[in-house]
Amino acid sequence: MAYKGFSIKWWLYGQVEDFYDACAKELRELEEKELKKGNNWLTPKENLPFRWYSVASKSLLEYSESALKGKKGKSISIDGQYNCIWESPEHVAIRCRYGGKIFQRRLSYIPQIVGVLGGLLGITAFIMQYIK
Questions:
Q1: Model pTM?
Q2: For the chain, what are the domain ranges?
């Protein structure tokens, strides 16, 4: 993920990029099992395992419904954030597990941020003391 200059979004993503990559790899391995069975994103829901459904079919349906209503459709994406073409309870469990790890890592940065902000306020107070 490349950004021009520094941004908070870039910094936050960079702190947990390894978790996103590991999650995407685990999800892809889960989907590879179904691909080896001959299922693709056009496979009917009846032929997929219990409670699996195609993300692509759902997004195409939402896009066509918004087009029929005359609404300006958002950009269409046939795969999700982690490049998944299916959704299942196993996918949700993997994403939840990594979501918890991402949240814990971001929480671990709060003491450092508080320390930096406290230091900046201290320096500002020291400088303001001499400006008066």
A1: 0.64
A2: 8-131
